C-alpha cells in the first residue's frame, strides 16, 4: 500500500490522495547507506520532476504540509505524537525531494515544481488555494514559523531539526555551483516577505544554540541518521531489494545537535551578502541585539527596528565552552566585530581564560602540525582574527597579562605553564606561528595578523618569562639572517639579470620587502614594550643584552635606524651598570643586577613613537570566504549527506 501511494505521487496521475503520504513509514537508513539510497530513488525523483509540472502533486503535498504546520503548536500542547509523526514524514519527503531539486535544477525549474496546476483537489487539506507565486515562499514561512513557535521538548525536537535541515537543503543549490550564488530561497529570506521574520528567527536560532547545544534527536531502533525523521515506505522496499548491510558504519557521521544545526543555519544566512545600499535583515538583527540581563535603563536604539534582547551570560558561556569549534568561533567573530554591546560584555568578563584558552589551543595546534586542508587554514585565520579584534582593547591586553594560563597544561606540553599568563602564552604561540610561517606557509596575510596582535599587546607586556623573551629575540635573529640571504640573492639576481627569470626576481623582491616589514614591526614591538613597561620585563632586557650584537647590525640599515635608537639606549645603560657592579656570569645574578639597575633607569632620553594599535578591517567580499567555509563545516558535521562528486563550491 505504501509503495502504491509513492508510485502515484511521482506519476502523471492527477487525482492522488496525498494525505495518505504522511502515514507511510519505513525503517530509517544508516548514514553509510545514504548514498545508495539517493541513487536508488534518483529515477523516481526524475519522474516526479517531469510529471509534477502537470499534476501539481508536489506543490499539493506542500499545501498539505502548510496546513499541518499551522496546527503543530496546538498539537504540541496536546502531546499529539501521531500528528507530529505524520508531519515529520511529510517534511522528510519534501526535504528529500528538495535536495534532488537543488542538486539538479535551476532556480526557475525549482520554482516551477512548487506551482499547483490543479485549482481544486479533493485531497488538499485547505479550502483556500495557495497561489503559484507564493507556494515556495509560504512553505519557507511555515518552516520559519515552526522554529519560532514550537517549544523544545521530546515531541517537538524532530520537527525542529527537520525544519532546520529543510532550510539548509533549500539553500544548498550553491553547493553544486563553482561559486557563491544568490538562490531563490536566499533572496526570499533576505529580500522577500520572509525577511520580516529575520529578528525573531535570529533570536530563536541564538536561543537554540545557547540553550540546546547538547540536545539531539533521540534515536529509535534503527534511527541512525542525523535528522531522525521518518520516510516513506519506498525506502524500505528499495533498500530491502538492494539488500544493504545495516551493520556497515564506515561512512557514518556524528549526529548533530539541535543547537549546532541552528547555528549553521544562522551563520549561512548572515554570511550571504546583499547588494550595496540594501539592509541585510539577519546581519542587522545579529549585530544589534542587547543584553536582557542589563539592569540599567537601556533603551532600544531608535534607528534599529530589529533589535531584541537575549541573555548574554547564557550565550557567552555557551560560546566559551565551544570557542575552539569552527561554527562557534565564526559566531564569536561576527559578534565581536559588529555587535558593540556583546563585545563590551565579553571584554568586561573576569573569566576571559574560558574564552581565550580554546582559541589559543587552535593556534597552538596549527603551529605544531601542518595545516593541509583549506578548512583547517580558514579555522586558523579565524582564530587569529578573533585575537586581533580582542587585542584592540587596552583593558583586554592588560588583563590577559595578569591572568594565569590555568588549564593550558592539558594541551600545552612543551613547558610548564605555571609561570605563564594568558598574555605570555599568546605571545609564545604567535611567535611560533610566525616562525613556522617563515619557513613553511609563507603566507603574508598570516604574518601580518600575527604581528598586528603582538603589536597591539606590546605596550602591556608584563613579566614575560625568559623562554618567551628568548623566542621573541630568536625570531628576530632568524628574520635578520633570512633577510641577509635574500638580499644577497637579490644582488646576484640584478647582477646576472640575463640568466634569471623575471617571475623569480619579482618573487624575490616581494620576499625581501615582506621580511623588512616584519623586522621593522618586531623592532616597533620591542620599542613599545621597553617604553611602556621596561621595569616589568627583566627577562626581555636580559634577552636583548644577550643578543646585543644582533641589534648592532640594525644600526647600519637606513630602514631601521630610527627604531634602533631606543634599544641601543637600553643596551648601553644596562651594559654600563653591569660592568660597574662587576657582575658574575650566572643568569640569576645578572637578573638581580638588572632588577637593581632598573631603579636608576630614566626613560626621558627615549624617542617617542605613536602607540602601536592595529584595527582589523573586514574585506568587502567576505561572502566568498565565509559561505564555502560554512558549507564545508555542514558537509563534514552537519548531519546531511552531499555527494562529493557533485560538490563544486569547496573541496570536500
UniProtKB/TrEMBL annotation:
Membrane-spanning parts: 6-26
Keywords, ordered alphabetically: Lipoprotein, Membrane, Myristate, Transmembrane, Transmembrane helix
Keyword Membrane tagged: yes
GO cellular component, as recorded: Golgi apparatus
InterPro entries: Dymeclin
UniProt keyword annotation of Transmembrane present: yes
GO BP of this protein: Golgi organization
Entry similarity comment: Belongs to the dymeclin family.
UniProt-recorded name of the protein: Dymeclin
Amino acid at each position: 500500500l505504501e509503495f502504491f501511494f509513492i508510485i502515484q505521487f511521482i506519476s502523471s496521475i492527477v487525482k492522488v490522495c496525498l494525505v495518505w503520504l504522511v502515514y507511510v513509514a519505513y525503517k530509517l537508513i544508516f548514514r553509510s547507506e545514504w548514498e545508495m539510497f539517493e541513487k536508488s530513488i534518483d529515477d523516481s525523483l526524475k519522474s516526479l520532476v517531469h510529471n509534477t509540472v502537470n499534476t501539481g502533486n508536489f506543490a499539493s503535498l506542500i499545501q498539505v504540509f502548510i496546513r499541518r504546520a499551522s496546527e503543530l503548536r496546538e498539537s504540541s500542547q496536546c502531546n499529539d505524537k501521531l500528528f507530529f509523526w505524520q508531519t515529520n514524514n511529510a517534511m522528510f519527503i519534501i526535504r528529500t525531494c528538495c535536495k534532488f531539486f537543488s542538486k539538479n535544477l535551476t532556480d526557475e525549474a525549482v520554482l516551477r515544481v512548487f506551482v499547483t496546476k490543479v485549482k481544486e483537489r479533493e485531497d488538499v487539506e485547505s479550502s483556500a488555494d495557495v497561489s503559484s507565486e507564493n507556494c515556495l515562499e509560504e512553505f519557507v514561512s511555515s518552516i520559519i514559523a515552526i522554529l519560532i513557535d514550537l517549544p523544545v521538548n521530546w515531541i517537538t525536537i524532530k520537527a525542529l531539526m527537520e525544519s532546520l535541515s529543510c532550510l539548509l537543503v533549500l539553500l544548498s543549490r550553491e553547493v553544486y555551483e563553482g561559486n557563491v550564488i544568490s538562490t531563490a530561497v536566499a533572496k526570499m529570506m533576505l529580500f522577500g516577505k520572509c525577511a520580516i521574520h529575520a529578528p525573531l528567527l535570529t533570536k530563536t536560532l541564538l536561543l537554540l544554540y545557547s540553550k540546546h547545544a547538547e540536545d539531539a534527536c533521540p534515536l529509535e531502533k534503527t534511527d541512525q541518521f542525523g535528522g531522525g525523521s521518518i520516510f516513506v515506505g519506498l525506502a524500505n522496499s528499495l533498500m530491502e531489494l538492494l539488500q544493504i548491510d545495516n551493520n556497515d558504519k564506515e561512512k557514518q557521521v556524528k549526529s548533530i545537535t539541535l543547537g549546532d544545526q541552528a547555528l549553521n543555519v544562522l551563520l549561512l544566512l548572515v554570511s550571504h551578502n546583499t547588494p550595496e545600499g540594501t539592509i541585510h535583515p539577519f546581519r542587522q538583527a545579529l549585530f544589534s541585539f542587547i543584553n536582557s540581563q542589563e539592569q540599567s535603563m537601556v533603551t532600544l536604539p531608535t534607528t534599529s527596528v530589529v533589535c531584541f534582547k537575549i541573555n548574554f551570560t547564557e550565550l557567552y558561556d555557551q560560546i566559551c565552552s565551544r570557542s575552539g569549534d569552527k561554527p562557534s568561533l565564526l559566531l564569536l567573530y561576527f559578534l565581536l566585530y559588529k555587535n558593540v554591546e556583546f563585545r563590551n560584555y565579553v571584554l568586561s568578563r573576569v573569566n576571559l581564560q574560558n574564552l581565550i584558552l580554546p582559541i589559543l589551543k587552535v593556534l597552538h595546534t596549527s603551529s605544531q602540525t601542518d595545516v593541509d586542508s583549506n578548512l583547517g587554514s580558514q579555522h586558523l585565520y579565524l582564530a587569529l582574527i578573533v585575537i586581533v579584534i580582542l587585542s584592540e582593547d587596552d583593558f583586554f591586553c592588560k588583563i590577559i597579562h595578569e591572568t594565569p594560563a590555568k588549564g593550558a597544561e592539558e594541551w600545552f606540553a612543551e613547558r610548564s605553564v605555571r609561570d605563564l599568563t594568558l598574555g605570555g602564552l599568546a605571545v609564545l604561540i604567535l611567535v611560533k606561528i610566525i616562525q613556522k610561517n617563515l619557513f613553511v606557509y609563507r603566507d603574508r596575510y598570516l604574518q601580518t595578523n600575527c604581528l598586528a596582535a603582538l603589536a597591539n599587546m606590546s605596550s602591556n607586556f608584563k613579566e614575560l618569562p625568559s623562554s618567551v623573551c628568548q623566542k621573541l629575540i630568536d625570531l628576530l635573529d632568524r628574520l635578520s639572517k633570512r633577510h641577509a640571504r635574500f638580499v644577497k640573492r637579490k644582488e646576484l639576481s640584478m647582477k646576472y639579470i640575463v640568466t634569471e627569470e623575471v617571475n623569480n626576481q619579482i618573487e624575490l623582491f616581494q620576499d625581501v620587502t615582506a621580511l623588512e616589514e616584519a623586522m621593522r614591526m618586531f623592532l616597533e614591538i620591542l620599542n613599545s614594550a621597553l617604553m611602556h613597561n621596561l621595569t616589568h620585563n627583566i627577562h626581555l632586557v636580559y634577552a636583548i643584552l644577550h643578543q646585543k650584537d644582533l641589534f648592532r647590525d640594525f644600526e647600519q640599515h637606513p630602514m631601521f635606524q630610527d627604531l634602533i635608537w631606543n634599544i641601543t639606549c637600553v643596551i648601553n645603560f644596562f651594559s654600563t651598570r653591569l660592568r660597574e657592579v662587576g657582575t658574575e656570569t650566572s643568569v640569576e645574578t645578572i637578573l638581580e643586577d638588572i632588577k637593581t639597575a632598573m631603579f636608576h633607569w630614566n626613560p626621558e632620553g627615549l624617542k617617542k613613537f605613536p602607540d602601536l594599535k592595529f584595527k582589523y578591517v573586514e574585506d568587502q567580499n567576505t561572502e566568498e570566504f565565509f559561505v564555502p567555509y560554512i558549507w564545508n563545516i555542514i558537509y563534514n558535521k552537519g548531519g546531511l549527506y552531499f555527494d562529493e562528486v557533485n560538490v563544486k563550491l569547496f573541496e570536500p
